[in-house]
């Protein structure tokens, strides 16, 4: 960690891949670690000739890890503070092939700042989804690697705290996402799902985690028209007590986590009239 990481780790913790006092005391992956799978996929698809775009680059850990392996890499993030940390990290590590862009992936004006038909590889590590506005920036056979925090993440935490947002669809979030991407000409290569458990020492430890990683109870990917209610230590005290009562184990206070990782490829949609 650099000096500027210390305050960011305290404030953001796991939300931006930092370890902090609020991080889980133990994690049980049961054989497969989604973070390790993301690293493996990036190593596989990132080549020396690749131009890469990271959507939601956060504090730049992944961007700076990939930069020495590729031709050029762009980092896009909507947080000026985190993007500044990415830029500073790159400077400290002597990275010269990185470019940085402030803004949201779904903002058409931001997308205009990116070059056409440039990116061989796009990744999003628990960050925003790929946007239609970015489609013109892809090369013909580009690869998209998307890690999402899926709809069972934290279950039943959201139920007990009254923050469970039920989808209006009868299908899973995976089917909805793949359908959206198929309409953009992005088709799946692989889809993997991971369940694992994090453990906290006691309810105070979990409360510190929920305070730091507010997206656990107030998902940031939801439209801002919906009510966002991060953890409140006063109003949520009863809910936290109830959750601890039912989820305390010998290993600690358990929290179920879920991740899904998709690899998609860009392909032309060939359609022709059917001869009758």
Question: What does this entry look like structurally?
Answer:
The chain is of the alpha/beta class and 276 residues long. 28% of the residues lie in helices and 25% in strands. Strands 1, 2, 3, 4, 5, 6, 7, 8 and 9 form a 9-stranded mixed β-sheet that branches. Strand 2, helix 3 and strand 3 (72-77) form a beta-alpha-beta unit. The longest helix has 13 residues, at 80-92. This is Methyltransferase domain-containing protein.
Describe the largest sheet. 9 strands, mixed
Based on the coordinates given, report the CATH architecture of the domain at 29-149: 3-Layer(aba) Sandwich
CATH third-level topology of the domain at 29-149: Rossmann fold
Poorly predicted runs: none
N- and C-termini, Cα separation: 66 Å
Helix percentage: 25-40%
Percent strand: 25-35%
- Count of DSSP-assigned helices: 9
Helix and strand string, N-terminal first?
Answer: HEHEHEHEHEEHHEHHEE
Superfamily (CATH H level) name of the domain at 29-149: Vaccinia Virus protein VP39
Radius of gyration: 20 Å
- Highest-level CATH class of the domain at 29-149: Alpha Beta
Based on Cα principal axes, name the global outline: globular
Number of strands: 9
Name the average pLDDT.
91
Can you give keywords for this protein?
SAM-dependent_MTases_sf, Methyltransf_25, alpha/beta, methyltransferase activity, nine-stranded mixed β-sheet, Methyltransf_Superfamily, 276 residues, single chain, Rossmann fold
Please render the helix and strand layout as text:
Blueprint: H1 5-12, E1 26-28, H2 34-45, E2 51-55, H3 61-66, E3 72-77, H4 80-92, E4 98-102, H5 108-111, E5 119-125, E6 138-149, H6 157-160, H7 173-182, E7 186-200, H8 203-212, H9 237-247, E8 248-249, E9 252-266
Parallel strand pairs: 2-3, 2-5, 3-4, 5-6
Antiparallel strand pairs: 1-7, 6-9, 7-9, 8-9
Domain Methyltransferase: 52-126
Pfam families: Methyltransf_25 (PF13649)
GO molecular function: methyltransferase activity
